[in-house]
Design brief:
Number of strands: 8
Strand order of the largest sheet: 3-8-4-5-6-7
Function: In the presence of manganese, represses expression of mntH and mntS. Up-regulates expression of mntP.
Subunit structure: Homodimer.
Order of helices and strands: HHHEEHHHEEHEEEHE
Number of helices: 8
Protein name: Transcriptional regulator MntR
Oligomer: single chain
Strand content: 15-25%
CATH superfamily of the domain at 144-217: Ferrous iron transport protein A (FeoA)
Keywords: DNA-binding, Iron, Transcription, Transcription regulation
Organism: Patiriisocius marinus
Length: about 220
């Protein structure tokens, strides 16, 4: 069993590894955890002693196979709780992340097993992120960022890279959610902004918006 702080570090290191594909620097971990690099060093050394990760001074930290399973289990709980909050308690998708951050630390394996069964073993959370199974396996899907599409390409929204309430609320205003069909009608070479069509509406979106929306082309 690991403390709440240890679990948060394990999950953060996992997410950073997915981005960089190698050892994660203590500075990068400190930025994500919003703490001092010296505090990170103390924690990663502690987790290294527990065989959750390997740590090399000046190189960084990397989860072991056991550490990756622990991280996947935390992520599984987080995303299952998000599904529960949206589907059963009718929270909106921009409201659930912080609540799930608290619920993901529940230790009862039986509770999570029953929660998964109660929800029908969902494969994805409300933001389109895959929910790992009980063995830590993630379902992979073919997707790309909307910013990568060219003029006259079409696709379906399958996820969001940015999950801040402000970003999700912006998408709501534009009637964009998981499953929304999007057509690219124009693209500016200079700044990467786009004209897209959603339903009968056409409008401009910035490069920043497009770089945070996952699309499955059709």
């Amino acid at each position: 069993m690991y403390s709440l702080a240890e679990e948060n570090y394990i999950k953060s290191i996992y997410h950073l590894q997915q981005e960089v594909g190698k050892e994660v620097s203590t500075n990068a971990i400190a930025d994500m955890m919003e703490t001092k690099p010296s505090s990170v060093t103390d924690m990663v050394q502690k987790l290294a002693d527990k065989k959750v990760l390997s740590y090399r001074k000046y190189k960084g930290a990397k989860l072991t196979a056991d550490g990756e399973i622990i991280a996947a289990n935390i992520i599984r709980k987080h995303r299952l709780w998000e599904v529960f909050l949206v589907d059963k308690l009718k929270f909106h998708w921009d409201e659930v992340h912080e609540i799930a951050e608290q619920l993901e630390h529940v230790q009862s394996e039986e509770l999570i097993k029953r929660l998964d069964a109660f929800l029908g073993s969902p494969a994805f959370d409300p933001h389109g992120d895959p929910i790992p199974d009980a063995k830590g396996n993630f379902k992979k899907t073919e997707k790309k960022l909307l910013s990568e599409l060219k003029k006259n390409q079409n696709g379906v929204c399958v996820g969001v890279k940015e999950t801040s309430p402000e970003y999700l609320q912006y998408l709501d205003k534009k009637n964009i959610s998981i499953g929304t069909k999007i057509s690219v009608k124009g693209k500016e070479f200079f700044d990467g902004s786009m004209v897209i069509q959603v339903g009968r509406d056409q409008f401009f979106i910035s490069k920043q918006i497009a770089e945070n929306l996952y699309i499955q082309t059709t």
